[in-house]
Specification:
alpha/beta; Rossmann fold; CheY-like_superfamily; Bact_response_regulator
């Protein structure tokens, strides 16, 4: 499973190139090979559609289209049974910011400046969870459909 996870498509969206480069360096050193990044938040939705990421690392505070807007646009696009983990990147540790992001569908947070060990562990954990969701969906799809019969008592 580890090799499969290392090939996961990880999309990084942050308007600060320093943050993008740091995350790319950390994830590359960990062995991840399929990293896509952008410092242009206005391109986020097009990239998400094109890349179909397994994990999204998303800055909250960006000019133009901010992370909250991107999160709100992601929710209606998700089909039943799909799981796209989103890790919010933020220097804002305020409770309101966290609550708002979670309400919009964020799964986890990384606070700037980044704790490298925390970055790696959160990425691994969420990619593993996504892999388990995908496996469950595959297995569920293999189950025979139950016949719909009205319940009667004999």
């Amino acid at each position: 499973m580890t090799e499969t996870l290392l090939n996961s498509r990880i999309l990084i969206i942050d308007d600060e190139i320093r943050n993008v480069e740091l995350l790319e360096d950390v994830l590359t050193a960990e062995g991840f090979t399929n990293l896509i990044s952008s410092t242009e938040p206005d391109r986020a939705m097009a990239l998400i559609d094109t890349v179909a990421p397994d994990l999204l690392l998303l800055d909250l505070r960006m000019p133009g289209t901010d992370g909250y807007t991107i999160l709100s646009r992601l929710q209606p696009r998700q089909r039943d049974g799909e799981y796209l983990p989103v890790v919010v990147l933020t220097a804002d540790a305020a409770r309101d910011a966290r609550h708002r992001a979670l309400a919009l569908g964020a799964h986890d947070f990384l606070t700037k400046p980044f704790d490298i060990t925390e970055v790696i562990l959160r990425v691994w954990n969420l990619l593993e969870t996504r892999a388990l969701y995908k496996r469950l969906r595959e297995l569920t799809g293999q189950l025979p459909k139950a016949e719909q019969r009205p319940w009667t008592s004999d």
